[in-house]
Design a protein that fits this description.
8% of the residues lie in helices and 49% in strands.
Length: 400
Amino acid sequence: MAKLYRCFPLAVLLIISIQLSGQDPFFSQFYANRVYLNPAYSGLEPGTQLTINYRDQWFGLPDASSGPLKGGYRTSNVTLEQRIPCLRKLERVTLGTAASFFQDETGTAPMRTAGGGLAGSFEYALIDPRMRINSGLTRLDVRAGVQGSLLQNSIIGSDFIYSYQLDPALGQIGGSHVLSMRAGRYFNLNAGAMVRGSIKHGLHDYTLFTIGGSLSNLNQPAISFYSDNDEVTLPRRTTLHLGVTRRLSSLKGTKHYSPIYLAPQFRWDRQLDGTLNLFTIGGYVLGKGHYTGVFYQFNGTDPTATNTGASIGGRNSTALVLSWGIDVRSVLDTKRRWRDRETGWILGFSYDVPLRGVNTAASLGTVEMNCRILLAELGGSCSGVRKNELYKGAQCPVNF
């Protein structure tokens, strides 16, 4: 009978792990982790880029530590990207690669998912970048990408209490126990595509647009801790994203030239047959060396995520996302005018204010931090930057 009691907390853990793995981790600053959003972004910018992302969700909630600020839901991701331009002297073709390392944890005795992956992208310019077009559609690029990852789930912790230790009169008998379980490694496949273009309105006046989509967990890998159980799978996730960038002001030709751009964005994620049906609407104000973003995340109604009004009320929470970032190199390079300053060391921060589902007092919200470093610029006669490209290298902290 004692052996049966020992199996009880293990069964509960497995059920919880299935629920936790039922949907993919989500980054509020999705353009700061572009390859995770859509593998077609691999090697988007000229040169070699290193991106580090960290997310701490609901860090104020107590967990197995019986206290706040000691656990939560933490996700980290590191990506190294490289653009390979002008394949065999073909000006219209560009290749990109990316290597990513990922880890997602839940609580101080966490359900942990960790692993790494490789991604590749292909871009073709439908409009020859060498053509001189006075107005209208001046650039139209098609990109496609695929990413393959090898991941593993594990449960490792020292705060487990078994049912046979609970006495009706005495309470807990004995200390906590250590549990360590690792599932088999599994292969995960993601794919995506997008169209990026530029419309010219006048001299130095453009509107840029991006329309893309991705399919994650295409092969729906089995993620059970039991090797002979293939019923527990990671469901497919569909993501649609689109955005427009338009210049608001400019002092072109002056000493203080530093244009400001407005970039409204939209994202839609759907998983688990609509149980995860999340919309993100908002935008960025962009400038050379800085960005500010405001987004509103809310759930769709197909079907509605259950919210009971408790501290944790549903699978998804409605939130207001406030983000800000700065290019440290541009800010510190004060001896030169903006257009001549060094770029390429960008720090970003965001804070999610829960509005429904998880209250702010209990969770303290969600924070994200990211860092993007331009390790090396793209050399050679072929720069890999399309005509009318707004973002060149790391000159703008957000690129999409």
